[in-house]
Amino acid sequence: MRLLTHNMLSCNIKGVSKGFPLGIEVAKLETKTVEFNPQFLRHSFPKIEWKAFQEAAKTLGVNDLPEQVEPSMLDDDDFLRRFHHALLEIHLEEGDLVCPETGRKFPVAKGIPNMLLNEDEV
Amino acid sequence: MARPERQAPPELFYNESESRKYTTSSRIIHIQAKLTERAMELLALPDDKPKLLLDIGCGSGLSGETLSEKGHHWIGMDISQSMLEVALEREADGDLLLGDIGQGLGLRPGVFDGAISISAVQWLCNADKSCNDPRKRLKCFFTALFHCLARGARAVLQIYPENTAQLELITSAAMRCGFSGGLVVDYPHSSRAKKYFLCLVSGPPSVLPKPKGEDGGSESEDNEIDEDDEEEEDNARTVKFSGRERPAKRSKLEKKNKKGRDWILRKKEQRRKAGHEVPRDTKYTGRKRKARF
Prior knowledge:
heterodimer, A: alpha+beta, four-stranded antiparallel beta sheet, 30% helix, 20% strand, B: alpha/beta, Rossmann fold, seven-stranded mixed beta sheet, elongated, Trm112-like (chain A), tRNA methyltransferase activator activity (chain A), Trm112 (chain A), Trm112p-like protein (chain A)
């Protein structure tokens, strides 16, 4: 699971009002190279919740992202490369996603988070 | 062929041997690719820029492959673990999620530029467990889908409805959740090639209309158009109707008026006019009695 997906996911349990962002517990990481595409990065930048993204990146060991960002930084090639690396190339292979409100854990196995809910959580 | 929906719930039906078919059978692969191509055509993305798409019921990632070929990033969701494992083997480019779309999607609002689904949504019409209510699950799914799509984004869902009732159930659930759009039926006269695509649009398009006078035209030119003309134009575009409003039910109206001070005063006035002897109106007229009475 990439951080792009992590940034889109929120906890879906009934009654949870603030299920975003999910905490990450890392057991295994993997890096896969993905083709660099500045157009896609610029397009998806406004949709990213930066604070959640930056903190999630930190948990995965990427510390070179700035805390504050503005759209003008997208013209900077160096920034784009770092953004690209954190957003698309680092994969969480094994670990857990943790709901910030209830503490419920969603296990991640082979890079696939298990978001299935029990009957009483729907 | 018997309908797979009749045999077992999706998480059990798509077991290892069934999922295996999706890597080995060239016929299935070909059909899936063709369906996805058509879905992309109906999705009508505004430009060729890479987008973030959602693949609902992505299964073994066959549909995702077509999306990747066009340069889009995608996130896929499926309920069958075995199918997702096949997708891993096939090295699908998108991210995969194990989830039940009938429980909602658990995605942030307004982030996806489009969604496709190939032969998945009709599974929601099954009530495999006692706690599953197809209507509720469909509502849950479409509400979540509506939320996670950007305004003006489209969703194209290819479905295999069992009968017209099921088709109606799915379509009406989508409309009730705020989608506009409708059904596209390919090859409607052939029973084999017939394919249903539910094309949904979430809200008005996010593209702004063009402002006037950008090309240097002056304001006075526009003013020359007569107002009557505009009205006529409006009339030509819309259908007139009249007498659609049903008269409100009488009983409801009467109930509202009945009993109470106003009603008593009105009745007394009527009696007075008719020449009867009526006690005068005081502050005690129509007053409620105490509880002990």
